[in-house]
Amino acid sequence: MRLTVEHRTHYRYETLAHHAVQSLKLTPAQFDGQKILSWSISAEGCTIGSEFTDGNGDIISTLTANGPMESIEIVVKGEIETTDTTGVLRGHKERAFPAVFLRSTPMTKSSAAIRKMADKVAKKHKDGTLLECAHGLAEAVSNAVKYAPGTTNVHTTAADAMADGEGVCQDHAHVLISAARHLGIPARYVSGYLFADQHGAAHEASHAWAELHLPELGWLGFDPANKCCPTDYYIRLGSGLDGQVATPIRGVHTGGGNENLDVTVVIAQSQQ
Fold first, then answer.
1. Which of 25, 72, 114, 173 has the highest local Cβ count within 10 Å?
2. Does the pTM of the predicted model rise above 0.90?
3. What are 228's strand-pairing partners?
4. How many angstroms separate the CA atoms of 125 and 35, rounded?
5. For 228, which DSSP code?
6. Apex CA 112: angle with CA 107 and CA 118, to 5°?
7. Within 10 Å of residue 153's Cβ, how many Cβ atoms?
């Protein structure tokens, strides 16, 4: 499938900002499931450069801006060809060992409820394969955390979402990662896009899911929010130990006071 992307991130500052530096994980890596046909990142009045590939195989660039400035708008535009690999991440070049992703973080720290859910799934599949157990975990998370937009925020932890029993894609990913790590399965957070509206309507933000590492397959994606593995409707941007690490944009600014953030994402099927 050929998909077009337009992703706009607009920061507006309360007062004039003096300086800003941001790390951008906004360029998809190429692998068997996706091929970049065209891609650009721009921000008027800013400098974008210093591109490198990190140990996870993710492409990172740096934005710098010198004020005074009232706002910054980062615009991503591109076209990408995707292939359904049934969720398996094939041909993705990375140097990090899977065991790195057994490490817990404050966002993915387990709770008694998460451990109980994971142990129940493991017991159910004790005579089956690790793949069956992984699918069972994803299903259990989908059932335990109801999809409810607006009920959580970027600071909501896996334990919080599990206790509340509701959340969004970020929360589903964090709970699944926490449960998998409890069972000794390396797991990581993935940020990206989802072609969810065939009419090309704007979405509130980017999408997120989790990848679990299975010895027989390598990294395999799971999207508990949609009860599926990623297909050719998904565009993978980057990964990390949790959503705060894998977020497409991280940065700091001096001056400016509080900032207001507006994000729009439009994914459409290419007409070519």
1. 173
2. yes
3. 223
4. 36
5. B
6. 85
7. 11
Total residues found in the chain within this entry: 272
Residues whose CB falls within 8 Å of the CB of residue 247, separated by 6 or more in sequence, listed in order: 25, 191, 240
Q: What is the dihedral of CA 229, 232, 236, 239, to 10 degrees?
A: 20
Q: What is the pLDDT of residues 163-196, one digit of tens each?
A: 999 999 999 999 999 999 999 999 999 999 999 8
- The enclosing H or E element of 209 equals strand 207-214
- Distance, in Å, from the CA atom of 199 to the CA atom of 79, rounded to the nearest integer, reads 16
DSSP-based three-state secondary structure for 114: helix
Smallest Cα–Cα separation from 165: which of 142, 181, 188, 182? 142
pLDDT in the model for residue 192? 96
What pLDDT does residue 232 have?
A: 95
Q: What is the DSSP letter of 88?
A: B
Q: Which amino acid is at 142?
A: S
Residues 200, 156, 161, CA angle at the centre, nearest 5°? 90
Q: What is the mean pLDDT of residues 220-246?
A: 96
